[in-house]
């Protein structure tokens, strides 16, 4: 039965957004447990950041912006 449980990842929302596919709304600064696939999609889009034990729950705005800009 443990094989059917989907892994979740705790993330902090970096900006307000609505997910049209799930019709869920997210507010900047909120910390939520996301299904792993959803989290990865949002992370790649720059909408969430991974919460780590040593990081604050609400990340600084500059940290989110810097990680999303790569040339």
Describe this structure in words.
By secondary structure, the chain is α+β, with helices and mostly antiparallel strands. A three-stranded antiparallel β-sheet has the order 4-1-5. Strands 2-3 form a two-stranded antiparallel ribbon. The chain contains two helices and five strands.
Brief rundown of the structure:
The chain is α+β, with helices and mostly antiparallel strands and 71 residues long.
Using brief descriptors, characterize the structure shown.
single chain; 71 residues; alpha+beta; three-stranded antiparallel β-sheet; two-stranded antiparallel ribbon; 2 helices; disordered C terminus
Mean pLDDT: 80
Tally the helices: what do you get?
Answer: 2
Walk across the major sheet and give the strand order. 4-1-5
Number of strands: 5
Compute the gyration radius: what is it?
Answer: 13 Å
Write down the overall geometry.
globular
Structural class: alpha+beta
The fraction of residues assigned to DSSP E strands is: 25-35%
N- to C-terminal distance: 44 Å
Low-confidence stretches: 57-71
Helix content: 10-25%
**N-to-C SSE string, H for helix and E for strand:** EEEEHEH
Write the layout of secondary structure elements.
Elements: E1 8-13, E2 17-19, E3 24-26, E4 31-35, H1 36-44, E5 48-50, H2 61-67
